[in-house]
C-alpha cells in the first residue's frame, strides 16, 4: 500500500515547519505567513496528493468542524447569497458547512435538525420558518449552539443576527413621500414572522390609510400579489406607489404592473426589498432596500463559533440597511 502523505512530508518538501503547514491547510488566519509561502504549501499538498485526516482532526479537537445551515430556500437569491458568504467565512475558520432548505416548513426544519444532529454538526445557523418556536426550544434544551439569522423570536433569548427591519421599511416609505407620493400601498406576507411584520409596521406607521396593505399567502404568491395590486389601483384614489417587503413579492408585483401596462415610475413608483439581478433587467431599474449580506453572514459565523467555544453566550447583532435609490421610485425632471 502506498504510504499516506503527512503534514511532515509537505513541511520537508517546502522547507518550513509542520506548524506552518498546519496553519495554512486548516485555513487559519496568520498575518505573518506570506502569500508566496501559503501558495507553495497548498501547491505541495496537491503535488504530493495529500489527503487530510478529518477523523483524526475531529477527535483531537473533539469537534467535527462542521456547521449546519438551514435557510428557507437555497434557490432564492437571498438564501443562496447568504449561504455562500457563510460557507466562505466558515472555511476561513477551518469549518465546512452542510446546507438544507426548510421550504418554510417547521416540520421540515425539525427533520433537517435531526439529520444534521446525526451528522454531529458542532452548531447551527438557521433562518427559522413560521411556527418553529418548538424547534428553537428543542435546540436550547439540548444545549446545541445555534444562531438565528434574519428571522428571530423576540421572546426567546438566543444568538441572533438580523437587520433593523422597522427602520429599513420606514426609510423606504419616507423616500417615497419625499418624492411626492401621496397614496402608498404595502404588499407583504400573511405571517406571524416578526421580521416581516416589523417591515409592515415600519411602513404603515408613516401612512394614514391602513386599508392599503395587501397580505399574500406564501403558497399563492402570484394570485395574491395580483389581487392586492388590482385592489390598490381600483381604489377611488388609486395608489401612486407600492412598497414590497421581499424580493419575490417585488418581482411578482413588477410582472403584474407590467401586464396591466402601468408605467413605472410615472404612474406608480416601486420600492422592493433585497438585491436581485431581476431588478437590473426591468426597464426601470428598481429601488430597493439593500441588506448588509457580508456582515450578516460573517457575524452569524462569528457568534456561532463563539457559542461553540464558550457555551452559554447569548448575543444579538442588529445591522442597518441601505436604500439604493434608482429609476423605479423617482420621476425624471
Describe the structure.
The protein has 333 residues and is α/β, with parallel strands linked by helices. Helices cover 45% and strands 17% of the residues. It folds into three domains: 7-52, Orthogonal Bundle (434 Repressor (Amino-terminal Domain)); 64-163 and 293-319, Response regulator (Rossmann fold); 165-291 and 324-329, Rossmann fold, CATH 3.40.50.2300. The chain has 13 helices and twelve strands. The chain has a six-stranded parallel β-sheet with strand order 2-1-3-4-5-11, sandwiched between helices. α1 crosses α2, α8 packs parallel to α9 (194-204) and α10 (221-234) packs across α11.
How are the SSEs ordered, and which strands pair?
Layout: H1 7-14, H2 18-25, H3 35-47, H4 54-61, E1 66-71, H5 77-92, E2 96-101, H6 106-118, E3 123-126, H7 133-142, E4 146-149, E5 159-163, H8 165-178, E6 184-189, H9 194-204, E7 213-216, H10 221-234, E8 241-244, H11 247-259, E9 269-273, H12 278-281, E10 287-290, H13 293-310, E11 316-319, E12 322-324
Parallel strand pairs: 1-2, 1-3, 3-4, 4-5, 5-11, 6-7, 6-8, 8-9, 9-10
Antiparallel strand pairs: 10-12
State the CATH architecture of the largest domain. 3-Layer(aba) Sandwich
Order of secondary-structure elements: HHHHEHEHEHEEHEHEHEHEHEHEE
| Order of strands, widest sheet | 2-1-3-4-5-11
Report the average pLDDT across residues: 90
Amino acid at each position: 500500500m502506498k504510504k499516506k502523505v503527512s503534514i511532515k512530508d509537505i513541511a520537508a518538501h517546502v522547507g518550513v515547519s509542520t506548524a506552518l503547514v498546519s496553519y495554512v491547510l486548516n485555513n487559519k488566519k496568520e498575518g505573518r505567513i506570506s502569500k508566496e509561502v501559503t501558495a507553495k504549501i497548498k501547491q505541495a499538498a496537491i503535488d504530493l496528493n495529500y489527503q487530510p485526516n478529518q477523523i483524526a482532526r475531529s477527535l483531537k479537537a473533539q469537534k467535527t468542524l462542521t456547521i449546519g445551515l438551514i435557510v428557507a430556500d437555497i434557490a432564492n437569491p437571498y438564501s443562496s447569497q447568504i449561504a455562500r458568504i457563510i460557507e466562505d467565512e466558515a472555511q476561513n475558520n477551518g469549518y465546512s458547512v452542510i446546507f438544507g432548505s426548510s421550504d418554510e416548513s417547521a416540520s421540515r426544519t425539525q427533520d433537517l435538525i435531526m439529520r444534521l444532529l446525526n451528522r454531529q454538526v458542532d452548531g447551527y445557523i438557521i433562518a427559522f420558518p413560521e411556527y418553529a418556536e418548538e424547534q428553537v426550544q428543542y435546540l436550547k434544551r439540548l444545549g446545541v449552539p445555534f444562531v438565528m439569522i434574519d428571522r428571530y423570536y423576540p421572546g426567546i433569548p438566543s444568538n441572533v443576527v438580523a437587520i433593523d427591519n422597522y427602520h429599513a421599511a420606514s426609510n423606504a416609505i419616507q423616500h417615497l413621500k419625499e418624492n411626492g407620493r401621496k397614496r402608498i400601498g404595502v404588499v407583504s406576507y400573511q405571517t406571524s414572522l416578526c421580521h416581516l411584520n416589523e417591515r409592515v409596521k415600519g411602513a404603515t406607521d408613516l401612512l394614514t390609510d391602513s386599508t392599503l396593505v395587501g397580505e399574500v399567502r406564501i403558497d399563492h404568491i402570484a394570485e395574491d400579489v395580483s389581487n392586492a395590486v388590482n385592489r390598490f389601483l381600483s381604489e377611488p384614489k388609486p395608489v401612486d406607489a407600492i412598497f414590497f417587503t421581499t424580493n419575490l413579492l417585488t418581482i411578482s408585483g413588477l410582472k403584474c404592473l407590467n401586464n396591466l401596462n402601468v408605467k413605472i415610475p410615472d404612474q406608480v413608483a416601486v420600492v422592493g426589498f433585497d438585491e436581485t439581478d431581476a431588478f437590473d433587467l426591468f426597464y426601470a431599474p428598481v429601488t430597493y432596500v439593500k441588506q448588509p449580506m457580508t456582515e450578516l453572514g460573517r457575524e452569524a459565523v462569528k457568534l456561532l463559533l463563539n457559542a461553540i467555544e464558550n457555551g452559554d453566550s447569548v448575543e444579538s447583532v442588529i445591522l442597518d440597511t441601505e436604500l439604493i435609490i434608482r429609476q423605479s421610485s423617482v420621476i425624471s425632471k
